[in-house]
Every structure is written in C-alpha cells, then in structure tokens.
Amino acid sequence: MTVNLAKGQQISLSKSDGGALSVVRMGLGWQAAPRKGFLAKLTAREIDLDASAVLFAGQEAADVVFFQHLVSNDGSVRHTGDNLTGGAGQGGDDESILVDLQRVPVHIDQIVFTVNSFTGQTFAEVQNAFCRLLDETTGQELARYTLTGGGSYTAQVMAKVYRAGGGWQMAAIGAPASGRTFQDLMPAIASHL
Which partner from 68, 95, 150, 152 sits 20 to 30 angstroms from 123, CA to CA? Predict the structure, then answer.
C-alpha cells in the first residue's frame, strides 16, 4: 500500500513484519506541460530534470550522487543514469537512485534527495512530476510525493531518508528552491538537516 506523502510528513522504513528494508529506490518522473498557442511547437524545449542524492555526516556533505557521479564513493548509493527529456509522468520513473541502506556507512546519518531543472525551465512548465520510494526487493511502492502547483522555481528539496532509533525513516520535504544543479541547492538543503 502506498502512502501519499504531504509536505513535512514522515514514515518509517521498517517493513510491516518488523524487518528492515535493505534496498530502496527513489524514483523521479515528469512530463513537459503542453504549451498553447500557434508558436508553441516551435518554441518548445525538452525539460531535463535531474535527481541527486547528497549524503550527510552530521551537517557536512560527505558525498553526492548525481548524473556526473553515478555511484557514491562507498558504493551504497547508485544513480541509474541521466534522462534528458522525461516523459514517464505518472507511469514509471525517468531517473532512479538506489540506496542500499545496509551498506550506507555508519557515519552517514541522512541522505537528501533533490530535483532541479538543469535546462532552467520552471516547474510551471512541468506536469505529472513525482518522487516515490520503493522497496527494491519487492517492487512495492512505499511512498509517493507529488510535485503539484507548478511555480516559478527551478528546483526542489524533495525528501530525505535518515537514521532514527536504529532504523531509517523518510521525511517528505517539498521545499521549492532555485538552481540548476545540486550545488546551487546546498543553502536550501542546510535548513532541512
């Protein structure tokens, strides 16, 4: 059963049988919003959203996984590859980041997931954008966070997974930001650690 997350909501990443999840996948999907008017097709550009995962040890960024660094230095977090145009929308994922929770080094206490428009379009030009968390072992969708409302910003601090009480939890953040890369988002991320 999927939990549709609201901004600020948190969920435990423990299985219903009391066991812990071992590998989770953060998926990102989107479509370009249809443009209206005579010149719409002539002026339309592809939208390149990018998913990133920033690994933190306390307040310090220890590593990052994104389209130019597909695997964390310790191998516990892996980006499956860059999608330059989107298109999955409410279907499958356009970009995915796999996190092997059991392999994440003990000094890493939170992993923050971001999305940014590398091509610079605002989220008003994107539709059916979502972030979801799946149990990679079973394929079960655990949580979904929908990017709604468009807006004039080009990025979002989407969610984080963090250590809590010997296990992992996920929090939906959903904070709009501006920037074309994860580096541009570091000040916005800092307020959610």
Answer: 68
Q: How far apart are the C-alpha atoms of 75 and 84, rounded to whole Å?
A: 24
Domain ranges of the chain: 3-31+46-190
Full-model pTM:
0.82
The CATH architecture assigned to 3-31+46-190 reads Sandwich (2.60)
Question: 118-128 pLDDT, tens per residue?
Answer: 888 787 777 77
Outline where DSSP puts E strands in the chain: 3-4, 10-12, 23-32, 49-57, 60-65, 77-79, 95-100, 110-117, 126-135, 141-147, 155-164, 167-177
Contact (CB, 8 A) for 144 and 86: no
